[in-house]
Inverse folding.
């Protein structure tokens, strides 16, 4: 029997995690597929997550709340989940954000990605505003660090971090997520390492996932509404990414962050600009 392990890093968003679990249950139709869910408590609010775990168990899923470690960030939280899932026998690890929802297809489609102990990373798909199904991929400019959905000639394409599939072999070969990243750029870092290690990336086109975005972090495309947490960590992680993988371009990326601080100042005020500059400096010191 194949075991699909689902990793959910929760920061005070148990209601979102409950909605995710309901969408998991609604798309689980294969009696030969065992599903295990690891709920990582990064917000020191165990009780509501235990209720989510109970919800999962009532529908036949194996579930565990991992707690007591404090807020270790997104990458380290997913590594914690993956370790427990591997111990539970997971053949495939599916990283999902609490505010993600499975909206089409079956969990069996995800499980097929890991057939035969292959070393592969997978992306799910989404339906755009026009109704077209598209691979759920992002892109980061390899000079400025600016990220978005649209691929560019000088950009790195990566699997969107709110829904990442990794076979057990791929997770082991990659060594999981890089814990230098607290928030943001984990998936771009993963893409670089996949390319260097020859780990292929595939799209599970019949498995659809939506993502509300920014529920716990305040990440949004509206510059006026971004949280200071997002301004800081997006800047820090951008610099860490270039320092790790593209050191010769680091001065350009830092300059781009300085310009971004100017945009933050105009859109959201001095606190936002200060968070960008502090995050940039923290990335250089890391």
């Amino acid at each position: 029997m194949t075991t699909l392990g689902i990793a959910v890093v929760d920061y005070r968003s148990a209601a979102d995690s409950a909605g995710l679990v309901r969408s998991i249950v609604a798309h689980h139709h294969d009696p030969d597929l065992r599903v295990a869910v690891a709920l990582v408590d990064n917000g020191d609010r165990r009780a509501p997550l235990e209720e989510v775990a109970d919800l999962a168990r009532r529908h036949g899923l194996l579930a565990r709340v991992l707690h007591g470690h404090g807020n270790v960030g997104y990458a380290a939280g997913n590594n914690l989940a993956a370790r427990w899932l591997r111990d539970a026998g997971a053949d495939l690890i599916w990283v999902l954000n609490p505010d993600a929802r499975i909206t089409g297809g079956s969990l069996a489609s995800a499980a097929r990605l890991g057939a035969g102990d292959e070393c592969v990373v997978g992306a799910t798909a989404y339906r755009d505003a026009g109704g077209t199904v598209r691979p759920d991929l992002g892109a980061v400019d390899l000079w400025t660090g600016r990220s978005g959905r649209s691929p560019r000639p000088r950009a790195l394409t990566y699997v969107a971090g709110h829904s990442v599939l990794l076979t057990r072999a791929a997770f082991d070969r990659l060594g999981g997520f890089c814990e230098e990243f607290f928030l943001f750029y984990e998936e771009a870092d993963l893409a670089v390492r996949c390319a260097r290690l020859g780990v292929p990336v595939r799209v599970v086109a019949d498995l659809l996932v939506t993502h509300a975005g920014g529920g716990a972090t305040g990440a949004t495309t509206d510059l006026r509404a971004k949280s200071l947490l997002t301004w800081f960590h997006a800047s820090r992680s951008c610099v860490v990414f270039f320092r790790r993988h593209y050191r010769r371009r680091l001065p350009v990326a830092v300059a781009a962050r300085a310009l971004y601080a100017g945009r933050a100042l105009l859109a959201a005020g001095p606190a936002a600009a200060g968070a960008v500059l502090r995050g940039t400096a923290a990335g250089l010191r890391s």
Remarks:
- The longest strand covers residues 201-211.
- Residues 177 and 190 are 7 Å apart (CA to CA).
